[in-house]
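Morning, I've got a small favour to ask if you have a moment. The fold is given in discrete form, as structure tokens running alongside the sequence. I'd be grateful if you could look everything over and explain what you see. No rush at all, and the record is pasted right below.
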Amino acid sequence: MSGITEVIAGGGIVVSPSIIAADLSTAGQLVSRMDPDIISLIHLDVMDGHFVPNLTFGPGYIQNLSAHTQIPLDAHLMIEPPENSISSYLELDVWGVTIHYEATRFPARLLTKIRDAGKHAGLAVNPATPIESIFDLIFYADKVLIMSVDPGFYGQSFMKESLKRIEKLAAFAVKEGHKDLLIQIDGGINKDNIKDAVSSGARLIVTGGAVFKEGNINDNVAALRAAAIKAKP
């Protein structure tokens, strides 16, 4: 089994299925059928009905889901303010926890708290937020999640402007010596644009509809991953 730590250490590309695109009532069965040799990370969108209009699930659901798979889980908190409930997520057996830059006045403090809990600390940024706004925070983060759609609305089209944002962030991270920063992208990723995302500098690719809509989940992820690896800069 090639876990996410090994994939990242080897400079590989991770295609992470977002279960928000699946039938959440059967998610336990779905993740139990995911092949860990193909899928290294599962993406979980936590929506609170406040920071974003929709509601999904909370820490109890994630805890139950984790019993159905050995694949690491990545919790993306679309909640405001995250400091009110983040401790509940840090108690879970998850690989990473991501907060939104726009959702808190204390991003550096929260990212440090996530790291101190032994999780990968992620900072997400919305399309309307200038990418330069988070430059001073990247040393507190293990990964930055660039949203390529507005958060909270499943099924939107990919915003190609996000590619320039990835390039700017990647260049800044290299310039400042944060070569280990992982760039993640989420929103509208499919077989037609995954190569562009990877070529721009993204290494963690979140995708929903392209994985769950048609065909076999493992086969779909394998095909996306093959396309992504070919495009690796």
